[in-house]
Design brief:
By secondary structure, the chain is α/β, with parallel strands linked by helices. Helices cover about 40% and strands about 15% of the residues. Bound molecules: adenosine-5'-diphosphate (ADP) and magnesium ion. Adenosine-5'-diphosphate binds next to helix 2 and helix 6. The site of adenosine-5'-diphosphate has 17 residues, from helix 2 and helix 6.
Length: about 190
């Protein structure tokens, strides 16, 4: 995604995320080369897609091959052309919004195949609005959910971005005069 880079990511907005840790991740070798995964969890608007894109771009700059896709778009494509093996050429797949995959038999089985095919060989970075406990909405049965989650987490770094939506915070700040009077401070009264 254009502009969604590490340079434009405000780490102060996500205090549980260490910039040093994320920088180490963008070196790649420690995990991408080994088929490990990264999972980004958090409510909407907290920067999961931004960070996923930023990490992907940083790895492309290091010479890795990376594919960024909304999970639904990739899975729908894979239903029509069996191209899971071809995706091996990508060191990293960024699967954005995995929980938005519709509970459609063909799509979820392709998603499961994809996860199994890459297991311990190629990496994935997955973003999700919901933690694993809610992933039964993706797969047709709990056993399949468990099997998929098991494969993903065995070699994974998980970041829980449980903060307030960056989008909402930005919108509230932009509203300015509409904010409650008790939140006005001498400094911002002057600025207005
Ligand atoms: P999510 O994928 O978690 O729903 P997004 O990555 O789409 O959230 O973020 C929503 C918007 O807010 C995007 O425009 C994104 O660039 C911006 N944003 C979110 N978090 C940050 C952050 N920490 N620093 C800079 N921009 C951010
Ligand atoms: Mg997103």
């Amino acid at each position: 995604m254009p502009g969604k880079t590490l340079e434009t990511f405000d780490f102060a907005a996500v205090p549980m995320l260490s910039k040093a840790h994320v920088s180490a991740i963008t070196a790649g070798d420690s995990w991408v080369g080994k088929g490990s995964n990264i999972l980004l969890f958090g409510p909407p608007g907290v920067g999961k897609s931004h960070l996923g894109s930023a990490i992907g771009l940083a790895l492309v700059e290091k010479g890795y091959r990376v594919l960024f896709s909304r999970t639904t778009d990739l899975v729908q494509k894979l239903v029509f052309e069996s191209a899971i093996a071809k995706l091996d050429k990508f060191h990293l797949l960024v699967l954005d919004d995995i929980t938005y995959v519709t509970k459609d038999q063909a799509e979820t089985s392709v998603l499961f195949e994809l996860i199994s095919a890459r297991y311990e060989r190629r990496s994935m970075l997955i973003t999700a609005n919901q933690p694993f406990g809610e992933w039964n909405t993706i797969f047709p049965d709990p056993a399949m959910t468990l099997a998929a989650v098991d494969r993903l987490v065995q070699h994974a770094t998980i970041f829980e971005m449980n903060v307030e939506s960056y989008r909402r915070r930005a919108a509230e700040q932009a509203k300015g005069p509409g904010r409650p009077a008790q939140r006005a401070t001498p400094a911002n009264i002057q600025a207005d």
